[in-house]
């Protein structure tokens, strides 16, 4: 699992930061899952090492423009390229209505199937290898955070040991690799888990934006390997955060601390903290690290590998 930040500004783009979009690359399946799609996201793809032809799923948090205005353009470009087989889109009510209106008035026709799924709190999907959950956050419009969970996998299968036990190679190995108990032709029962190493723990990534501090964000983020959380405002501007239902750097850190996550990555920064201003983004990072030391600050095209939890 590898995260690429395609946009880390809030509200409007700046010279250095585009608006919200995060790509999750799944190399083992040659897929890219997108979280939000602000205006200009397709241009950010062109500047990155990602391939738009690998986009399979898009998760939209809410219907504000800095999170969806790039969606129609990206989908249309993928269609013109003709190398996308299918895209599933997940998001709040009215998302499908919005996309249908865009298609109708622009007379855009896709050459590949698109399925829009309206999400509700709980499990969004389960494809056997990954499960995705969402939770309602606290914002001015219906907004959802997403939790992407890689399922645990059976550990390394010891082929030499299996051969030493006289287990014939073939389909039976596949069953043993999955940890199943198998009865051999000679009557012996072999437990596959005895021939496999330690279970490989799945990784968990959580994406929370836009939201003020809330208990549901903590619940969604519990024990995540990586929590990506909005940090629109500095602690000094907490009153603005409460007015606009956004988070401060300290609120994001408090969520990470309460949820006992492994890594916090801040994003979605207000342009008011540009270089030369009284408060700058480095100050937001220091504020967060004072509460949750293992905090990073994202920038456009920052790539982060999601590490498995260490004992």
From TrEMBL:
Keywords: Endonuclease, Hydrolase, Metal-binding, Nuclease, tRNA processing, Zinc
NCBIfam families: PRK00055.1-3, RNase_Z
Pfam families attached to this UniProt entry: Anti-Pycsar_Apyc1
Alphabetized InterPro entries for the sequence: RibonucZ/Hydroxyglut_hydro (IPR036866), RNase_Z/BN (IPR013471)
Full protein name: Ribonuclease Z
Quaternary structure annotation from Swiss-Prot or TrEMBL: Homodimer.
Record's catalysed reaction(s): Endonucleolytic cleavage of RNA, removing extra 3' nucleotides from tRNA precursor, generating 3' termini of tRNAs. A 3'-hydroxy group is left at the tRNA terminus and a 5'-phosphoryl group is left at the trailer molecule
Role summary: Zinc phosphodiesterase, which displays some tRNA 3'-processing endonuclease activity. Probably involved in tRNA maturation, by removing a 3'-trailer from precursor tRNA.
Gene3D superfamilies per record: Ribonuclease Z/Hydroxyacylglutathione hydrolase-like
MF GO annotations: 3'-tRNA processing endoribonuclease activity; identical protein binding; zinc ion binding
Highest taxon listed in the record's lineage: Bacteria
Keyword Nuclease: yes
EC number: 3.1.26.11
Binding site for Zn(2+) 1: 62, 64, 139, 210
Cofactor info, note text: Binds 2 Zn(2+) ions.
Active site: 66 (proton acceptor)
Protein residues bound to Zn(2+) 2: 66-67, 210, 268
Species classification: Bacteria, Bacillati, Cyanobacteriota, Adonisia, Adonisia turfae
Family: Belongs to the RNase Z family.
Cofactor(s) essential for the protein: Zn(2+)
Gene label: rnz
Natural source organism: Adonisia turfae CCMR0081
């Amino acid at each position: 699992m590898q995260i690429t930040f395609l946009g880390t500004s809030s509200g409007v783009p700046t010279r250095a930061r585009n608006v919200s979009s995060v790509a999750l690359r799944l190399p083992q399946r040659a897929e890219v899952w997108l979280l939000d799609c602000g205006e200009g996201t397709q241009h950010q793809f062109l500047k990155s090492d990602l391939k738009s032809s690998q986009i399979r799923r898009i998760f939209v948090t809410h219907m504000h423009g800095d999170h969806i205005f790039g969606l129609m353009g990206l989908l249309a470009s993928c269609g013109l390229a003709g190398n996308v087989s299918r895209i599933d889109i997940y998001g709040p009510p009215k998302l499908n209505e919005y996309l249908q209106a865009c298609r109708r008035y622009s007379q855009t026709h896709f050459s590949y199937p698109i399925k829009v799924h309206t999400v509700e709190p709980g499990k969004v999907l389960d494809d056997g290898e990954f499960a995705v959950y969402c939770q309602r956050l606290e914002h001015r419009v219906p907004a959802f955070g997403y939790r992407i969970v890689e399922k645990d996998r059976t550990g390394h299968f010891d082929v030499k040991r299996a051969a030493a036990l006289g287990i014939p190679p073939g389909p039976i190995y596949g069953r043993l690799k999955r940890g199943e108990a198998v009865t051999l032709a000679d009557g012996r029962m072999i437990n596959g888990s005895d021939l496999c190493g330690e279970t490989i723990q799945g990784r968990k990534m959580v994406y929370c934006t836009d939201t003020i501090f809330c208990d549901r964000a903590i619940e969604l983020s519990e024990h995540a390997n990586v929590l990506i959380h909005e940090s629109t405002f500095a602690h000094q501007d907490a009153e603005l955060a409460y007015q606009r239902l956004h988070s401060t750097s300290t609120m994001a850190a408090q969520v990470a601390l309460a949820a006992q996550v492994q890594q916090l990555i801040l994003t979605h920064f207000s342009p008011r903290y540009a270089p030369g201003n009284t408060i700058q983004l480095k100050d937001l990072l220091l504020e967060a690290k004072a509460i949750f030391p293992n905090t990073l600050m994202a920038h456009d095209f920052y790539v982060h590998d999601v590490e498995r939890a260490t004992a």
